[in-house]
Design brief:
The structure holds 2 protein chains of 2 kinds.
Chain A lengths: L12 H23 L3 H6 L1 E10 L12 E6 H12 L10 E14 L7 E13 L5 E14 L2 E11 L14
Parallel strand pairs in A: 1-6
Antiparallel strand pairs in A: 1-2, 3-4, 4-5, 5-6
Chain B lengths: L5 H5 L2 E2 L2 E3 L1 H4 L1 H10 L6 E5 L8 E7 L2 E7 L5 E5 L14 E3 L3 E2 L6 E2 L5 E3 L8 H5 L10 E5 L2 E5 L7 H5 L3 H8 L7 E3 L4 E5 L3 H7 L6 H4 L38 E3 L5 E4 L10 H13 L1 H8 L3 E6 L3 E4 L4 E9 L2 E11 L4 H15 L6 H14 L7 E3 L8 E4 L2 E4 L5 H14 L3
Antiparallel strand pairs in B: 1-2, 2-21, 3-12, 4-5, 4-7, 5-6, 8-9, 9-10, 11-12, 13-20, 14-20, 15-16, 15-23, 16-17, 17-18, 18-19, 19-20, 22-23
The chains are: A alpha+beta, B alpha+beta.
Amino acid sequence: MSSAGVVVKPESRAELRLALADLQQFVEQEVALLDEQRFEEWLDLFADDGAYWVPARAGQDSPLNHVSLFYDDKHALRLRVQRLRHPAIHSQVPRSKTVRLVANFKLETHAADPSLYQVTSKFVMLEDRSGYARRLFGGRYTHVLRRKGDGLEIVLKRVDLTNCDQSFPSLTQPF
Amino acid sequence: MTPYTSEYLRSLVREDRVHRSVYTDPQIFELEMEKIFSRVWIYVGHESQIPNPGDFYCTSIAHQPVVMTRHLDGKVHVLFNRCGHRGARVLNEESGNARILTCMYHGWSFRPNGELAGVPMRRDFQETTLKEAQSGMARLSRTENYRGFVFASLNLGVPPLVEYLGEARHGIDELVDRSPEGEIELWAGCHRYEYSGNWKLQFENLADMYHPPACHASTVGPDGRQFSRRPGNRGGSAPFFAPNGEAIVAQTGVRGFKNGHSSEASLFREEQAGGIWDDYRAMMVKRYGEERTAEILKNRRHSMAIFPSVDILIAQTSVRVIRPISVDKTEVQVYPVRLKGAPPEISTDIVRFVNLTHAAASFIQSDDLEAFERCQQGLASSGTEWMLVARGFGQEVDEGNGILFGDRSSEVGQRAQHYAWRDLMGAA
């Protein structure tokens, strides 16, 4: 964890706006990596103790007492990226193309650790795969981010889909 | 126009092949609802889904909405989810708790055992009408519970459940016995996935040890090992290939049972061990003794598929339910299991690992879903009328009690399913 002094908490309104702008830019760049299928660079954004979580129940409070659509630690995330690059990933023949729109950014206080930045946003994602019907997903992102040197790393990316408790056809693309 | 006589339906399944219309013809699907799903025992749910009086869980059998309830006396019932008055579906949420079940249309209300409880402006009805069974929520009189697994049948003359399960009941035993208290709970919700394909494509896959090297090729890492599919420092991950280059999974055996049940031998060689799994084993030894514990934890079976509705995932410690929606639409639910009395970390580990194998986004299931959809698309072609389940045909070993064993990923399990299909669909 960053030592005191590395984490600069925004005090004034001007600094708050600046911090939110930085965090917003980070999230926009993060999802752009997914749009562009730069999965390895996306993986590198996650902290070694980071996780990618898509709950399967509205308001789910833990990934351990209920199933999730995704709950990947960094190791599982690495396997997922390897699989997305594997020449024999049949569910990606043909490949998906995706685009994400992110908006309504809010900076929140992280309940357990005030040195972490918690940013929420709303998103919509389109997935097109040639020969298949267009798929539309939407919901809320929660990014828990930590200062790492001059930049940030992802401690948690949580995706709350509006239809998280429904039945899904195969999901290959992280949201 | 094809006349769907019993003789015709029988002719669609041959010893080593199945006619493609069995997957693609909507009228055959409707006949399956009538001649299979309305005739045999269908898994409804597990009693742990309704632990308290008034708890309910809604599902369907052969398109008919049913609800599993726990009455105030603790007894489990399966009712038709339909108001006795004008027929509206009474419960509209999948699960919940209500001591009185109230119909939204005119406000008739029912007890969890199906009895009529209240009728608004009652005096305008003849009491004799309200006293008829018709006026309650009708019960499925053939409801049985095997070690917590609740099955029901629309067929009043169906033989007892244990008779229907036969030797396949051991698949349930082998899962439930893994609890130090001999009880399991479905406690963590379920994965739900769906595909544009016939329900039998999923069911055949439950006995398919032949597909992993091709279908799941992308799950094998550069080190030649598949990702760790179950928890434990040991016994979770396994080498994927044998020294001769064949996938080990495809060298394992399969069994076909009477009434269409099937099981796969375990992929794993080692007991799950390390960390909390050692504590768990000690609890099991304390309860059952060393010899019985070794017997219970033996990697005997990967799974047991109970035709036509449920799959006991012994290696993955979960329960999978197959729900046909239409001829080319199927929904599947996978419930991670809690082994009652085992350390909590065992249960949470199971939840985490089932995410990796059986979520709609999982490494394994997404490949299978792709395969099911491609089968449905391919079977639309009329160039070849049959699809083959011929692997290991003629090499089965009769183990007695209606069990046929075939090694090296024999398609003996799929044949057992299709022979049961033929017997049921071909019945007069």
